[in-house]
């Protein structure tokens, strides 16, 4: 199960207040790595292609 940052924050907040974290949300280091990789990938694909690279591609095409 993949946990979002909000889910982790909710669990941390509950634990800090003396409550129990939601048992449905399990800590999984692999999921954390997966979330981090997905976030970096999303940022990369959302970036604009630089104008000089676009000009170079037009020249090659």
UniProtKB/TrEMBL annotation:
It comes from the Bacteria. Residues 1-35 are annotated as: Disordered. InterPro entries: NepR. It holds the Pfam family NepR. Residues 31-60 form the Anti-sigma factor NepR domain. Residues 1-15 have a biased composition (Basic and acidic residues). This is Anti-sigma factor NepR domain-containing protein.
């Amino acid at each position: 199960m993949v946990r979002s940052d909000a889910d982790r924050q909710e669990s941390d907040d509950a634990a800090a207040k003396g409550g129990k974290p939601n048992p449905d949300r399990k800590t999984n280091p692999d999921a954390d790595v997966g979330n981090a990789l997905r976030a970096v990938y999303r940022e990369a694909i959302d970036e604009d292609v630089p104008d000089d690279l676009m000009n170079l591609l037009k020249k090659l095409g």
